[in-house]
Design a protein that fits this description.
alpha/beta; 4 strands; four-stranded parallel beta sheet; single chain; globular
Length: 98
């Protein structure tokens, strides 16, 4: 699986954040907000159906997800993450936008 929008850095980050959102503008805005934080790495997944697999690969400490997406809504996605909580050990937070 290709990791979209992986942070580029020379040493491993302290905290990996996974953003799941079908709108790339959210990824751009969040990346701009944290770009100077050397201990954070942002990973972006535009397809919620691939989010579980991506989370298993990168092992994020924080998962941010949109509420409304075409393939799957954010609540269903968080339920899937909760069912795999022991494997992932990530905190999922749902985002909403107007």
């Amino acid at each position: 699986m290709t990791i979209v929008g992986e942070a580029k850095q020379s040493s491993p980050p302290v905290a990996r954040i996974l953003l799941i959102d079908d709108e790339v503008i959210t990824e751009h805005l969040l990346r701009r907000m944290i770009h100077q934080e050397s201990d954070l790495a942002l990973y972006y997944c535009p397809d919620p159906t691939q989010a579980i697999q991506m989370a298993e690969e990168i092992r994020p400490v924080l998962i941010l997800t949109d509420l409304l997406m075409p393939e799957m809504d954010g609540i269903s996605l968080i339920r899937q993450f909760r069912n795999r909580r022991a494997e992932l050990e990530s905190l999922a937070i749902e985002l909403a936008h107007a």
